[in-house]
Amino acid sequence: MARDKGVLRLTNPWPRFAWLAGAAIVGISLALGFLVLDRYQQNDPPLGLWGAICWGLGITADLGPAREAAPTLRTPSRIAWTSSTLGQIRAGDAQHGSFIALNCTACHGEGGMSQSTFIPTLTGMDPAVIFKQLDDYRSGKRPWGVMGAIAKALSIRDSADVAAYYAARPNGLAAIAHEGSLRGESRSKESDSARHLAFMGDEQRGIPPCTACHGPHGYKIGAPPLAGQHAAYIERQLAAFAQRLRQNDINEQMRTIAMQLTPSEMHALAAFYGAPESSRVANK
Ligand code: HEC
Ligand code: HEC
Questions:
Q1: Domain annotation for the chain: domains and CATH numbers
Q2: Ligand nearest to the CA of 273
Q3: How far is CA 174 from each of CA 12, 168, 169, 228, rounded to the nearest angstrom?
Q4: For residues 38 and 58, is the Cβ–Cβ distance under 8 A?
Q5: pLDDT along the chain (284 residues), means of 10
């Protein structure tokens, strides 16, 4: 027995070998995990050494001060409504889209019915709108950090699939728009002026009626449904168009219109179109 222990302690090389091998594995993993692998980003240029270490630790490199207002875009979107784009959208597979949508539920809600006033409801939205907005986030034409990263992780095919899925969900924006249940029954001066802008526009300021493009009277391809969308979201988008923070509208139609609206008109229009909270609960 005593002799065995001596052998173990003095001449058996394995424990030392095991320690060295363990240390080497930890060292290689640290180098791979913090220095090598996370340098290479899927759609962005490789990070520097320090950026890679921060990224590996879960601290994003994007902690700098807010950027200045973006300069005017020369082309507002990569999407044009060509027959090949429309074909891509039509080919969307809602079944596969339902799996992709699992990544969206945390923010956009179950089936796309968003519970947060600043996150748009996607349920029943036209697939062309979803497809275009995803591509605009992907290309940075519509800047919004989180959605940009999410859209970059989706292929064109995935975008068409998830668009088909949300468009086919029942009881969403499309249903609300067709019920014609626009608010504004509570007749106040503001809601009257919003109703007038929505249905008649304002000729003097060159504002066409919203309904000509957003329904129910007419639909322009790519114009999202407004009836049933969250009021706070609508108001913020109008302000973003007016301040040119959002520039992804082809032909500048929304920027031109929003710049003509006063803040109180934006507020009244958002309240007019925005979903009444009661219908939101009923639709859950
Ligand atoms: C971390 C929260 C979050 C997640 C996850 C998320 N979104 Fe979004 N999404 C937002 C926010 C916030 C906006 C509004 C941003 C803005 O104002 O531009 C938005 C906007 C959108 C829009 C624009 C809608 C419109 O009316 O113009 C689409 C389309 C969209 N998201 C699709 C998706 C899809 C598809 C997924 C899943 C693959 C997803 N989002 C996952 C937060 C999220
Ligand atoms: C000439 C057609 C046209 C008219 C008129 C029009 N819009 Fe739009 N609107 C669009 C299009 C197209 C888009 C989508 C822009 C894009 O591609 O991002 C849009 C986008 C919007 C959005 C963003 C919605 C979202 O889900 O992100 C809001 C809000 C909006 N319009 C409100 C209005 C209001 C309110 C009026 C009336 C005062 C109006 N629009 C009149 C065509 C129009």
A1: 83-170 (1.10.760.10), 174-283 (1.10.760.10)
A2: 2
A3: 76, 10, 9, 9
A4: no
A5: 55 86 90 76 62 66 48 88 96 97 96 95 96 97 94 97 97 72 61 91 95 89 94 96 95 96 96 66 38
By CB atoms closer than 10 A (0-12, 13-18, 19+), residue 71 is exposed
β-sheet bridge partners, residue 214: 219
Instruction: Find the 122 Cα to ligand 1 centroid distance in Å.
Output: 8
- Whose C-alpha lies nearest to ligand 2, atom 38? 210
Amino acid letter at 152? K
The tokens describing 177, both together, are: 């728009």
pTM of this structure? 0.79
- Dihedral through CA 81, CA 158, CA 123, CA 216, nearest 10? 10
Residue 224 burial (CB count, 10 A): 20
